[in-house]
Amino acid sequence: MGFRDGLKHDMQNLKKDIEKEVQRAWTIEYKGHCIEVVNKMKEESLLIDGVIVASNRRKSIFSHLLPYASLSGILTLENGKTHKVSVKIGGYISLNCIIKIDNETIMNESEKLEFLPWEHKDKIIPFIQKQVQENTRIVDGRLPDDDYFFGTGKPRLDPGLFDLIINEPKTPFFVSKLMKLFKEQSENPTVKARKATYDQIIFDHIAIYRDEIIQELGQLAFDEHVLQQEALWLLEHAAHRDVVKFAILILGFTNCEEHQELLYTIGLHDEFTAYAIFAIRSGGKGVNDQIWKLVQSVHGLGKMTAIELVEAKTPEMKYWLLTKGCENRRFTDFMALRCATKGELDVALYENSISKELYTGAAMIIEGLLDESNPDGINHYPYAGAVLSRFLHHAQAHCDTLEDFYPIIKISEFVNADEEIWEDRLNEQWKQHERTALQEAVQPYINNPKWSQLAMDALQQSEEIDFRSIEIARFYQLDITALLFEWLKKEPTNSMLFLAIMDTRELQPIKDLCAFAQSQFSLSSLSIEEQNCLECIIQDLHEFDGIGIPLVQAALKSVNENLRLHALSVLTEWSTTFRKQAEIQQSLNIIATTTKDKEERKLAKLLLK
Question: The whole model's pTM is what?
Fold first, then answer.
């Protein structure tokens, strides 16, 4: 998020907080009639018996510089007698409401405006506890502060992902100031002191400073009971995720055994799993059991942390890791090596026969290990040769469907990769005889013509598109472009279809795909799904000079940093004619002068020369 976007985001959050704090209502009964005064950010209203009889609308929040507003209306009694109702409302530090009937004051109340950052907001811990009570797990990854954290209407990241990818500069002295404020809060836990700590926590993202905070907390010389008391207070009042994270880190430096169940419940949400485990590990008894419960209960990025830190002590635990550990395919690349190692996949596959469940689980792990984008992939697994060989052996008994066959084509692609790639592998852990044996073992499966026919049948007849059918068809070099466009009519924002068409590397299909996106997408206000599809196109337009120029223009104007970066990269490869277009030049100027990312600014300035 650039400086301007960040400032705008902060101002929107501030405005929401002020709106909630100043929204008040006063009600009084007078001779059988209800008089109500309602105060909002930009409007004050006087209601008599539920009907608005006077209101004052403000054009902006700055109109509150005028401290008081006056309202008046007529109250008519049943006997026909009328009374003038006058209201005076306003104030800076306190919100005062004075109601008079004729000249008699019947109400004079004052409510202090404190602007406490946790007030008037849904609290995070009760939100999580309610889900867990109703479902025994988290079924909705949203949090009450999503709009505050990401921005209203902005894309959301998977819970926990922000902490992994954040790459923002640190605010000088953030941690030292936070520790000082928390020390003052612990010594004198007044509302004022707690507010100061709370405000400092949400000033920046705790994830940036996690290690530094842990180091500082380890040096605190405080009574453990006091630390725990203030941590629990923060958890109880937390309406912002960073406050929850900071509070859990504090608990991690106390004997929090009696709060293990609370930590476990919080840890069921992937946003907090890593933090909860940090605190759970200080709890003493049954730590590994608690972490193992989380391994089995979380499904997203939190699972990765839990698997990383758990000790698989029993055969049952190892079998579970091999069969269930990589069920969430979105994160298979993160978990594959950990599940293979802790579950002892090499030992499990050494058996003469295995269950279909284990074959399927092993297939998911192998797909993750063979993913080219996985930094912890197959080349980091010491038993790779043996595992791939044994998997192919067990495929004789279990390879019945396209899903069963899919990892086999990935093995074939791996062992038949370019010699230059294999030269590096043979210089590391692999031996030539292992590669040769795998090539010989995989080929009979590849030569079986039924798989290409099954893939084509699935694309023509299935009610749902499946990425395995597409990749198997492409592996056998089948012409499925027309089928992909037919599917695209039914699923116009299926990014898998966009990737498959771009992978044809053929000019006409790519032209047609760009035209489809231009006609179907709202280029000025792209949805998250449309952004994903557009990224699939633009990241591979480098060699197609000038194709999809309206899409590149839309990407340059997008709030999506990946889209902008891909568009800039494409323009560096295209002829200079396209970057000289007025609209492109305007977008480049904006990026060069406003974006926070150095690489973006550098590329934009280069393209402006």
Answer: 0.74
